[in-house]
Amino acid sequence: MSHRTSCFQLNDLFPREIDIEVCLKTLKIFQKLEGDVNCVVWDASLVLAKYLETMCQHKADFLSGIKVLELGSGLGVVGLTAATLGAQVTLTDLPEALPLLRLNISENKQKIVSMGGYAIAESLVWGDKNSEIHKQEFDMIVLADCVYYEDAIDPLIETLQCLNNTINKKPTIYLTQELRDSDIQKKLWDVFYEKLTEFFYIEKIPEEQQHVNYRSSDILLLKIIKK
């Protein structure tokens, strides 16, 4: 089968794609036309990805060589950005999300490697305390727009706690969340935030410290460290 035919079939399966510029590299991200929350690029993921890029512009070794875990990766925008900036990244999501996530890693692999980074996708079900992911140590955890379903709140909190139980490290967590207008989504965020404050210190990163073109008053960017 020719390369041209393969590309045609790929575009049939994933007809939407976007390009994201990261330090003069162009990442290609495939999306689906329809599906669950992990099938499209959300604004909060762009805000976090561009914040990481901004930090690396101020401090060249901000991500260089460090171990990063992304939770709820979806299409992998944040994790792939971190890898392109030199981090060693494990991107995670539910098993059904991995094919598209791995496609995006493969599509951008050469650019990531050329910048000294690394990216791999693994399955992680929040709340699964037996996951091999919990046995690893990470310097940083990133997650974007992950507070969406009520039944995922407690498992997400449990996972964040498990990932912070290693003896030697307390990873820094960067989280973005779009504050939506619906009463249900407002309540979900309030519940999550209250539970998060029980176990973690939380610092809101002001808009003026974020990327000049990728920030919004309705998208929170938080820096989180375990108490």
TrEMBL record:
PANTHER family: HEPATOCELLULAR CARCINOMA-ASSOCIATED ANTIGEN, PROTEIN N-LYSINE METHYLTRANSFERASE METTL21D. It comes from Vanessa tameamea. InterPro entries: Methyltransf_16, SAM-dependent_MTases_sf. The gene is LOC113393075. SUPFAM superfamilies: S-adenosyl-L-methionine-dependent methyltransferases. This is Protein N-lysine methyltransferase METTL21D-like isoform X1. One of its GO terms (cellular component) is cytosol.
